[in-house]
Amino acid sequence: MQIKRCSWVTESEIYKNYHDNDWGNPIFDDNKLFEYLSLEIFQAGLSWLTILKKKKRIFNAFDNFNIQKVSSYSKREINILLKNDNIIRHKQKINSVINNAKKIIDIQNKYISFEKFIWSFSDFKTIKSNKKTQFYISNKLLLKMKKLGFKFIGEKIIFSFLESSGVFNNHSKYCFKNLKK
Question: Per the residue annotation, which of 35, 40, 115, 163 is the catalytic one?
């Protein structure tokens, strides 16, 4: 019997693995949430497959998305990243990820954790396939993050981030991951 997945999942093993093991699983760890947000930023204008193929190398280049480490990157580290052929070498995206790490530290100081900040927008529960509610939450979070100084974020990036990190469950009706919940 063939496993039923969301329609966007291709026959690619990389996509299947991402869908089955990562996408939509609720994340409650600040560094992991930072990783997911950063990957969405790097994906802007590119195929998701490009990001998935480079994911491990991006992860390594950015010190496993350790918020403290990334927030302290200097021009030296930025120049190293810009010369790294194994990652997305987009200066604005790289600078945004570093800026966003600093903003997450500000949030941690004010709200205890980035996780609590993010999940507070959905009343600490996963919102299942309700586009109207999801767009409201996503836009509310986007406005707050922009006000706090986050960079290179927009409606699509934040909505996709909330899907990938499990705040939203948008697995298709017949997807095995939707049926498990």
Answer: 40
